Amino acid sequence: MESNWKVKIGISRTVLCGMLIMSLILSSYSKQEDSLKVLAVENKGLIDVWDAVQLAASYGYDMVELDVQESKDHHPLVFHDGNMKHACGIDKKISDFTLEELTTIGFLESDETITSLDSMLKLCRLLDLGVMFDIKQGERSEGYFKRIRDLIDQHGLERSCMTLSDTQVQDQLRGKVLLTIPEKWPIELIEVVQENGGLVIPALNTFRYSEEKHRSEARYDAERLLKAGVDGFQIDCVYQDYFGRPKVVE
Description:
Strand content: 15-25%
Oligomer: single chain
Shape: globular
Low-confidence stretches: 1-38
Number of domains: 1
């Protein structure tokens, strides 16, 4: 991973029905010139996280989103759902088990077991991928956040991570990740924000659009935001063909 922050990567909220909902990423990192608009891909609860991350790297993404939860013994694990029943067939939460126990529990639809954040950050570093943390609700102990901070340092990702989580997460990870400030702005403010050192990185997510017309609505937003000069996108992978990647079958 390069030591300087790349302007082309980012995560934020999305565009809905003609209204721009974006995150302004404020930091002291240097903003480098790069005309290519590249993407961050959202995991969206894919069960086979290892394959999803490696696929994102092969498609040339800059970042992946990792959903992080706290185990009973305060270790960070990568897991999306609030309950393990749908994915693992166990009517329990991640917080009901220790790290050692969780890493032996398999998924119903793959041979993969639940993954520690340590293992996943090691993979992201190997693949030269940045990380956007979605820190899920839970106990969120001091020891839990310390382990996340230490893992970011251990894997050399302190200049390659972001979060769009709440103020508690931002306070705990300040100095380790770029922080986002979700706001609603008219599209005309994009240039103003950029002139003042911010990155504008909107997202294209299926849940923000109508079920019947989500692809056409997302394409419309992608085209107008590219024209407006945004610094990058966070997307659900079903929209990656809008940006030169292979189309994903829904």
